[in-house]
């Protein structure tokens, strides 16, 4: 992700049946991409998440936090949120690996993407983000990508907030949802 010649795409990350998309993307660049699930829990959602999911303020969601690694080094802290009606009682609520990945599980549960919106911004890292990403101090800004996935009928069912060091290089996003 820190190589200007590496241009990723969001499309494989929203298509079911892709398996370990990150591992494959890194391997295509001759690198090793892994991830560690740090926690999964039912928790009150941050205000931006309840707004994006169309939930009432303070509503509980299932939240899953992952640390994304490239060649063993942390490059992204990813938080995904689902309404409890979507994720409670499913593997999304646990810290184990999900066979086939979350996108495939969600598709099996009847949640397929029809619309995807992404918002990118820069800001100073929180203490938790700086620690997880091994940032030397808070002088390095982070890049956040917030992805909201909705059904073809317009019902949002997932919000993911991915935080990376600002030095990651270049992002290019192009998606077609069938």
Unreliable sequence segments: 4-9
> Can you tell me the CATH class?
Alpha Beta
Number of helices: 5
State mean pLDDT (0 to 100 scale): 84
Query: What would the principal axes of the Cα set say about the shape?
Result: globular
From the helix content, strand content and strand pairing, which structural class follows? alpha+beta
How many structural domains?
1
- Percent helix, as a range, is 10-25%
Q: Beta-sheet strand percentage?
A: 25-35%
What is the C-alpha radius of gyration, as a whole number of Å?
Answer: 16 Å
CATH topology: Chorismate lyase
Count the strands? 6
Largest sheet: 6 strands, antiparallel
Descriptive report:
With 178 residues, the chain is an alpha+beta fold. The chain has a single domain, classed as Chorismate lyase-like (Chorismate lyase, 3-Layer(aba) Sandwich). 18% of the residues lie in helices and 35% in strands. It contains five helices and six strands, in the order H-E-H-E-E-H-H-E-H-E-E. A six-stranded antiparallel β-sheet has the order 1-2-3-6-5-4. It is globular.
List keywords for this structure.
178 residues, 5 helices, Chorismate lyase, six-stranded antiparallel sheet, alpha+beta, globular
Quick recap:
The protein is an alpha+beta fold and 178 residues long. It is built from five helices and six strands.
Please render the helix and strand layout as text.
Elements: H1 21-28, E1 33-44, H2 47-53, E2 60-70, E3 73-83, H3 84-87, H4 102-108, E4 115-123, H5 127-132, E5 142-150, E6 156-165
